[in-house]
Amino acid sequence: MRPDASLLEIVAQLQVGLAAGEQVLTLRALDPDRGRGLYAGERVEVDGVVHVHRPYRVWVDLAERLGLRMLTPRIVGDAVVELRFERLDRSARWQDEQLAPSERYGRDSGFARISKLEDPDLVIDFADALARTKLPANPRILELGVNRGDMFGLMTALDPGLASASFVGVDHSESALALARERFPGENFSFIAADVNALPSSLGSFDLVIAMGVLQSPGVDDRALLRRLIQCELGWTGALILGVPNCRYVDGERIHGARQKNFTQPELSLVIKDIAYFKRYLQQHRRQVYVTGRDDLLVTAVAAAASQEPPR
After folding, report:
1. Alpha carbons within 13 A on the beta-carbon side of 309
2. Distance CA 101, CA 98 (A)
3. Residue 79: helix, strand or coil by DSSP?
4. Of the residues 53, 162, 213, 215, which has the maximum number of CB atoms within 10 A of its CB?
5. What angle do CA 216, 217, 218 make, to 5 degrees?
6. Predicted confidence band at 312 (pLDDT cuts at 50, 70, 90)?
7. Cβ contacts of residue 75 below 8 Å, gap of 6+?
8. pLDDT per residue as tens digits for the range 247-272
9. Rounded CA gap, 46 and 272, in Å?
């Protein structure tokens, strides 16, 4: 590949290799360190040869869009790196159809291998969302789909003051709840085995309700569940954080963008439709709503300033 080749030419070359069944594809490019501070596409001359600068972000994004994993680049000479891309095994997904429905997110599932807390976007965006909630002292916090309690761990790490909060986690996986109880044995942590479509009536009122990816789960009536949360579980000045998945996991990699069946590229209409409904409904119930995030879109709803007192 020429050092001044366009991105379109590079994409075409990689697609030819994929069509030929190659498992590992290679190409040589200017070492991105040689173009620090430049934008993708700017020219860099090295020893009389004109190269096109592209930061590593471009190569990582390109690999993801073509269903490839970018391997560690190799230094070749003073100014060039050899980029290597490995074809992803599209059949290597975490779904476990052989497990009982209640255990497809349980301790022995493929999902248990995934740690959302290793996603920088989620950690940073959730920290911002949590700060927006402005929780009172000793709040009551409910998480639906708590699984092994990762979000409880993240919250208490982000805000050590929450160590005295009352946490209630609901999940339908007994094995995941067993892990959560081992991690959080304190009396202020309570874990309940239940279907989110049929929540117990005795949960009480909460200052914060969290549901990460739950409303989009198969078999969940997201509209009915949201109404139940607003009308029954959320205190008048309470806050809500909803996580809407905008990614999938393949062969150890997180792939950006929601997919619909038979679509090869992200098709976001369902995500947009859900978020638009959530935002409109929450605003109708006197909440200020913020939509943030990337691979996990966060809908954060907090009580509007004019709604600090319940209606008379």
Report:
1. 2
2. 9
3. coil
4. 215
5. 115
6. very low
7. 31, 81
8. 988 899 988 887 766 666 777 888 99
9. 46
According to DSSP, the β-strands at 189-193 and 74-76 are unpaired
Q: Within 10 Å of residue 72's Cβ, how many Cβ atoms?
A: 7
Per-residue model confidence as pLDDT tens digits over 110-123: 888 889 899 999 99
The residue among 163 and 284 whose pLDDT is bigger is 284
Beta bridge partners of residue 190, listed in sequence order: 168
Contact 73, 27 (CB under 8 A): no
The pTM assigned to this predicted structure is: 0.90
**Residue keyed to tokens 């874990």:** 191
Domains of the chain and CATH, by start: 7-87 (3.30.1410), 101-307 (3.40.50.150)
Largest Cα–Cα separation, the chain? 78
Cβ–Cβ under 8 Å, residues 175 and 108: yes
The rounded mean pLDDT for the chain is 91
